[in-house]
Amino acid sequence: MFESSIVEINGITLGVVLRDHRDGPCSFRALHERTIQMNGRSYATMEDARAHARSLMRMGNACRPMPEAACGLHA
């Protein structure tokens, strides 16, 4: 059974949590720059993924600019 849930805070979409099997792990797909580090990561529950995304948004830990090399930019 496929299940998905949009994760948002204050009207800002952070990402989507996906589950392919009823009791299987969930995976997160990032849709916001602050949750990029979570992209593709597995979580035991959908709520675990939601809580991690919301904590990153509140804390702002992932606000660091990406290095140019990671963005595919060259000097």
Describe this structure in words.
The chain is an alpha+beta fold and 75 residues long. The protein has one domain. The protein is 19% helix and 29% strand. The chain has one helix and four strands. The protein has one helix at 46-59; strands at residues 3-9, 12-19, 26-30, 42-43. Strands 1-2-3-4 form a four-stranded antiparallel β-sheet, with helices on one face. Residues 61-75 have low confidence and may be disordered.
Write out key terms for the chains shown.
single chain; 75 residues; alpha+beta; 4-stranded antiparallel sheet; 1 helix; 19% helix; elongated
In short:
By secondary structure, the protein is α+β, with helices and mostly antiparallel strands. The chain has one helix and four strands; from the N terminus they run ββββα.
The low-confidence runs, each spanning 5 or more residues with pLDDT under 50, are 61-75
Report the portion of residues in β strands. 25-35%
Query: SS-based structural class?
Result: alpha+beta
Number of domains: 1
Q: What is the number of strand segments? A: 4
Largest sheet: 4 strands, antiparallel
- For the terminal residues, how far apart are their CA atoms? 47 Å
Taking all residues together, what is the mean pLDDT? 82
Helical content stands at 10-25%
Strand order of the largest sheet: 1-2-3-4
With helices defined by DSSP (H or I, 4 residues minimum), what is the helix count? 1
Question: What global shape is seen?
Answer: elongated
Helix and strand succession?
Answer: EEEEH
For the CA atoms, what is the radius of gyration? 14 Å
